[in-house]
User: What shape does this take?
Amino acid sequence: MKQGPDLRRIEDNMRTGTLAAHQFLGTDRRALADIILQDQLLLEQLGLTNQALAERMRFFTDQAAEKGFKVVDKRFQVEREEHKGTIPCPFADNFNAAKSITKVLNLQTGGEVIWSDLNIHLIEEHGFYEGYGSPFRVDPTAYADVLEIKKDK
Ligand SMILES: [Zn+2]
Assistant: This one.
């Protein structure tokens, strides 16, 4: 897919610019526009939306915000690691997220997923789940499974 100059500039900044250390694109060689498009197609197949994923993730992050640890609905063990500092949204919209991390273990299935506060913003606002091989890649299938996100009817 062709991508406009804005997305190309953002991609360059993620790959080799000031944001390269964050490895948003991991080892993924696809163009940023293709990464976003292909995850949207995957979501369609799953019957899910960016909003459904982001809302469910925010729900768990909020649950653990106060004490850093909580068991939710007797089936999700939620942990929050607070990290100092912020990280800027790579889409250059002046959004900065805390570096804090949320971990959820599904006690029924043993599945575990992890995300940063920025992941929620990236999904909600940009439909960006990060590239393959990225330390914070959110695989929509795996996250929907562990977090038991139901299809929008
Ligand atoms: Zn943003």
